[in-house]
Amino acid sequence: MKFATLALSAFFLVSAAFAQPPAPERRVTALGTGEMQVAPDMAKVTVEAVNNDGSPVDAAMETRRAMATIVAAARRLIRDQADLKTTRLAVNPEYEWVEGKRKFRGYNATQSLEITIRDVSKVDSLLGDLIKAKVTTLGNLEFFHSKADLLRREALLHATRNARDNAAKICEALGLACDEVAAVRMAGTSGPAPVAVEAQMFRMAKDGGNSMPVHAGMLTFSATVEADFKVK
């Protein structure tokens, strides 16, 4: 009986030893950042034609005529019809307050056109042509890149490599080896973000030849990753 008790105790001790969880895996976590900075290869600009008249039909017709001159000017450089997009079309009554009384001023007809420019070298020329047309306002000039998704992935690749290099430096300083990656987490990507560079100029047709600066800028795509490496 005593032998059976000892054998049973030994069985439980061995079973308990096998049941214990393995020691936690040692890891080093490193942060990596990557950045791609490129010149834009595309642009967008929004132009607007606005007219006011006592008749909504006349107001709309005048705005339509003005927009026709704008579209004609744009088509001299913009060949693809898909790059001309109407973003707003409205005819609304307009009022003003005169000596405390609400006074009807007429009907306000507005039409906005977004123009995509797939060659940034044509921006100056296009803006000059638009100024000569019957534009009421010209603005929202935005530069961007046609391969934005690819550039974000390139920034992510650089961030991953940077995390690996940072982990290697940490392990080297600690006298450890950590070549095997255990996990990678994308902390975030961003871009494009405009960065001002040397201004380009175009001549204004309606202000006696004064010029207006246009900043093409640079675009910055960035990414951050967090990577875990196994310590040997």
Summarize model confidence as the mean pLDDT.
82
- Radius of gyration over C-alpha positions, nearest whole angstrom: 33 Å
Question: SSE order in H/E notation?
Answer: HEEHEEHEHEEEE
CATH fold descriptor of the largest domain: Translation Initiation Factor IF3
Low-confidence stretches: 194-211
- Shape descriptor reads elongated
CATH architecture identity of the largest domain: 2-Layer Sandwich
Count up the helices. Answer: 4
The N- to C-terminal Cα distance equals 48 Å
Record the strand order, biggest sheet. Answer: 3-4-2-5
**How is the biggest beta sheet arranged?**
4 strands, antiparallel
**Any idea how many domains?**
2
Helicity, in percent? 25-40%
How large a portion of the residues is in β-strands, by DSSP E?
Answer: 35-45%
Given this structure, which CATH class of the largest domain is correct?
Answer: Alpha Beta
What's the total count of β strands? 9
SS class: alpha+beta
Query: What is the CATH superfamily classification of the largest domain?
Result: Protein of unknown function (DUF541), domain 1
What does this structure look like?
The chain has two domains: 103 residues, Protein of unknown function (DUF541), domain 1 (Translation Initiation Factor IF3, 2-Layer Sandwich), CATH 3.30.110.170; 103 residues, Protein of unknown function (DUF541), domain 2 (Alpha-Beta Plaits, 2-Layer Sandwich), CATH 3.30.70.2970. Helices cover 32% and strands 44% of the residues. The radius of gyration is 33 Å and the shape is elongated. The chain is an alpha+beta fold.
